[in-house]
Design brief:
By secondary structure, the chain is an alpha/beta fold. It contains 38 helices and 16 strands. The protein has a 6-stranded mixed beta sheet with strand order 7-6-8-12-15-16, sandwiched between helices. Strands 3-2-1-4-5 form a 5-stranded mixed beta sheet. The longest helix has 22 residues, at about 485-510. This is CHAT domain-containing protein.
Length: about 850
């Protein structure tokens, strides 16, 4: 391009259509000794690129030169346009007074169409600063002029900005209308960067309206568009952090924010964006129970926002700082006053977060015993319980519950908790992915705990049981949304299996695998991202837990007892259900039980190897201590019938068959009483089809499978090349009984990638979720298949919990490493009982009794658990 070309003026719109190309062409213009007007345009283009995607110091240098060339060209309109760009850059650099002064002068210098463009950019600067009324005033003045000039690009930008300001003020419907109008205009242009920004903005709108799957999908789409343009995505990072936090993924949000801060510092980017990223990191750290990190990030954000004169943002950062200090145990009268002051500031600014600050002030005041102050603040926060998106209403119901507790009204506490958890139930059911459903329950943990305490104080054990069930294993209450027949998702899962299989083969051959592991992690991120986009079905209320129905079913099952363990204020409460009543006993501290359970797990790992006979008394003694901590005096009231254990999520690794009072019993475990009831009432599929699967690489070669094939006659046997993931899934769908002998791997870092090794790679939890109906009974004869990740309020993610909502009524799985050879006789004895018509729990009890009494075989029997009721 030559400096004299008329197309130089086209570079300005190009910087948001093809940023890299615009930068290169502007540098080319400057290399040809251009006239003053063209030099001004080229420097402005480079300044815009550096401002938004690069080094702020270079941006300011180029923009000042662009203004000087505009003055030399004696063009007031050109100078006004450059002043507007310079003003925005100065604001982003934290030089607020200078930036707004430049924008004021730009408005004064410009006329007509140019002035409207300057007004738009001043509106944008007001939005960045959190001055929403001023932003709306300027953008409303700009839009009619831009429309009259038929300036499609700038009209679309102005509509997008106005929508974004509406969102900040909680006006979601107005924002939707503007976003829709802007998108229609963008479809007529080639402004690819602006189009990506529009998709990002729609993601923000979806989030503000409570649609988290749509928000994640749109933000991912926007990121793909930005990646094609090669531009950074710091604003998108901030918005995705918000969505991730709302989805119950604060650790991921913190990692994303910190990574973006490092990238921004590396290029010398916008000070305003750094402050916003610090605020996002502080919020995420607080939600991830890391108050010290939250305090550090929030304090720095407060300083930056104050220096930038951004009162809106400073108030939000101060709110997070106070929350983090409270979480760190720094309650004081000063903190109450600080929270109240922030609440007043947020109200004055029209910020939707104001009720959160009032709730915080009330909560701290309650901790200090200042009931009158607490009531004043909580009453203000409680007003939000009937309007707004789900999480805002949750804030209001939490405030109402705390008001009732302070007033000594257990009934009021329970009503507020019920209403709040109903809101969250409806919100959870909009989420299709089981992981998001499980993690979302963390939002209701406080309400569930308040309700349990109120139940304990005001009523009998039945009420405590109902409220313990109200928020336990809720992610299993309905099947997750079946993954769509998305070609990209299906091909990604196939590629994932191939890469994982190659990596495993290379490890066995002693070859390095870092490149394969990187590709595997990339594919995992892609699969997980696509599954998180799934929407759930509309809320239907579901079945409410009924104690009378539970007691009747227990009587039908041979006079058994269900032992539900609740945790209140750190102690285990045992709710013994059976014989027409519910009784409560208090056991030991949860922390001590968790520690003892870890010791037991370590002991079982030792006993899985020959020569550890001397450790057997130590493990048995630990089992006796566990019983005292977990069952306490309830152990003497279990009777002689079957026992169902319903533990809290944090006790999922307890080998219950090791406890002396449970060792000789018909014993099963269930994530919740409701889950056990569903399993009990699940009918087996017609036909009684059996499937036997033998995976590769087992020490015994899956020796039980050929014998089981002889026992069952017409069973489908999948081994060698037939034991591929697609074939195994096809045969498992709707089977009456499945036995899978395959290496298991539990993934604490990604529980839904926990797997069973097939011939073509791992069969993962995401695969099982594609089944129309998982097998009625399934036996997993390999290590670590009964391990779970504890997430949310009291939720478990893992292989077993993926199967239970999909039609499986009973599972036998293992919670510890076991000796492969010792597993074979246990499995054969187990199937003998099943063939005789016994339940899985009955068969497992009898199978343990047939094993030799040495430590190796006893530990193998203890490591396996029957889940469900089949």
């Amino acid at each position: 391009m030559t400096a004299g070309s008329d197309t130089v003026l086209e570079l300005l719109p190009m910087v948001f259509a093809a940023p890299g190309e615009a930068l290169a062409r502007a540098e080319e213009v400057l290399g040809d000794r251009p006239p003053a007007l063209h030099a001004s345009v080229a420097h402005q283009v480079i300044g815009i690129w550096q401002r938004d995607f690069g080094d702020m110091r270079l941006a300011l240098s180029h923009l000042r030169r662009a203004r000087a060339w505009a003055a030399r060209a004696d063009s007031a309109e050109r100078e006004a346009d450059v002043l507007a760009t310079l003003g925005v850059a100065l604001v982003h650099a934290g030089r607020t007074r200078q930036g707004m002064d430049a924008l004021r002068r730009g408005v004064e210098r410009g006329t007509g169409h140019t002035r409207a463009r300057v007004l738009f950019r001043r509106a944008y600067a007001w939005w960045v600063l959190g001055h929403h009324k001023e932003a709306l005033d300027d953008v409303r003045r700009a839009i009619p002029v831009l429309r009259q000039a038929e300036d499609v690009i700038w009209t679309a930008r102005a509509l997008t900005l106005r929508a974004t300001v509406h969102l900040a003020l909680g006006a979601v419907e107005r924002a939707d209308a503007d976003f829709t109008a802007a998108e229609a205009l963008w479809d007529t242009t080639g402004q690819e960067h602006d189009k990506a920004d529009a998709v990002e903005s729609r993601g923000l709108a979806a989030f503000r309206s409570g649609d988290i799957p749509a928000a994640l999908r749109l933000l991912d789409e926007a990121e793909e568009r930005y990646a094609k343009l090669g531009t950074p995505t710091f604003m998108l990072n901030i918005r995705r952090c918000e969505v991730l936090m709302a989805a119950g993924l604060p650790a991921e949000a913190l990692a994303e924010a910190d990574a973006a801060i490092r990238a921004l510092d590396g290029i010398g980017g916008q000070s305003t964006r750094k402050a916003e990223l610090l605020l996002a990191a502080a919020r995420a750290a607080r939600l991830a129970d890391d108050p010290q990190t939250a305090i550090a990030r929030a304090a720095l954000a407060v300083r930056l926002f104050a220096g930038q004169r951004r009162a809106w943002w400073e108030a939000h950062a101060r709110l997070v700082l106070i929350e983090a200090r409270h979480a760190a145990g720094r309650g004081s009268g000063r903190l109450v006053a600080d929270a109240a002051a922030v609440a007043e500031k947020l109200v004055a600014l029209g910020a939707p977060a104001a009720p959160e600050a009032s709730l915080l002030a009330g909560r701290i005041a309650l901790d200090l015993g200042w009931t009158a102050d607490a009531e004043r603040h909580l009453a203000v926060a409680a007003r939000s319980r009937r309007v707004g998106p789900p999480l805002a209403r949750m804030t209001g119901w939490a405030a109402q519950a705390l008001r009732a507790r302070a007033a000594g009204s257990p009934r009021g506490v329970l009503e507020a908790c019920r209403r709040g958890l109903d809101v969250l139930d409806d919100h959870r059911m909009t989420l299709g992915a089981s992981e998001l459903r499980a993690r979302a329950t963390a939002q209701g943990a406080e309400l569930a705990a308040l309700a349990q305490r109120a139940s304990l104080a005001s009523g009998g054990p039945r009420r405590l049981l109902v409220w313990s069930e109200r928020w336990r294993a809720t992610a299993l209450s309905a099947p997750p949304t079946r993954p769509p027949a998305d070609p990209a998702l299906l091909s990604g899962m196939t590629a994932y299996r191939e890469i994982a299989a190659r990596a495993e083969e290379a490890r066995q051959e002693g070859k390095p695998v870092p490149a394969l592991e990187r590709e595997q992690r990339r594919l995992e991120r892609e699969i997980r991202s696509r599954t998180l986009h799934m929407r759930g079905a509309a809320p239907d209320g579901g079945d409410r837990f009924d104690v009378a129905r539970l007691l009747a079913r227990l009587d039908d099952s041979g006079g058994g007892q269900l032992v539900a363990l609740a945790v209140l204020d750190g102690r285990v409460q045992v709710l013994l259900c059976g014989q027409g009543r519910v009784r409560r006993f208090e056991a030991g501290p949860l922390a001590a039980a968790e520690t003892e359970a870890e010791h037991v797990q370590a002991g079982l790992r030792r006993l899985a190897h020959p020569g550890a006979q001397a450790r057997l008394p130590v493990v048995e003694a630990a089992g006796r201590r566990l019983e005292e901590l977990l069952l306490g005096p309830a152990a003497a009231h279990l009777g002689d019938g079957p026992v169902v254990i319903v533990p809290p999520g944090r006790l999922h690794r307890v080998p219950w068959a090791l406890l002396p009072s449970l060792r000789e019993r018909v014993l099963s475990v269930s994530p919740s009483a409701s889950s056990w009831l569903r399993a009990r009432e699940t009918a087996p599929p017609p036909g009684g089809r059996q499937v036997l699967v033998r995976g590769p690489g087992l020490a015994t070669g899956g020796a039980e499978v050929p014998e089981l094939a002889d026992r069952y006659g017409g069973a489908t046997v999948l081994e060698y090349d037939d034991a591929s993931v697609p074939r195994v899934l096809a045969e498992l769908d709707g089977a009456a009984l499945a036995h899978i002998a395959a290496h298991g791997a539990f993934r604490a870092d990604g529980p839904l990638f926990s797997s069973l090794r097939m011939t073509d790679g791992p069969l993962i939890v995401h695969d099982f979720e594609r089944l129309d109906r998982s097998p009625y009974r399934i036996i997993l004869s390999c290590c670590d298949t009964a391990r779970f990740a504890t997430v949310g309020a009291d939720e478990l993610l893992g292989l077993v919990t993926a199967l239970l909502p999909l039609g499986t009524a009973g599972v036998v799985a293992c919670s510890a490493p076991v000796n492969d050879a010792a597993v074979v006789p246990l499995m054969l004895a187990l199937h003998k009982g099943i063939d005789a018509g016994l339940s899985l729990a009955e068969s497992l009890r009898d199978a343990r009794a047939t094993l030799p009494s040495d430590a190796l075989h006893r530990a193998t029997g203890w490591a396996f658990t029957a889940f469900g009721a089949a």
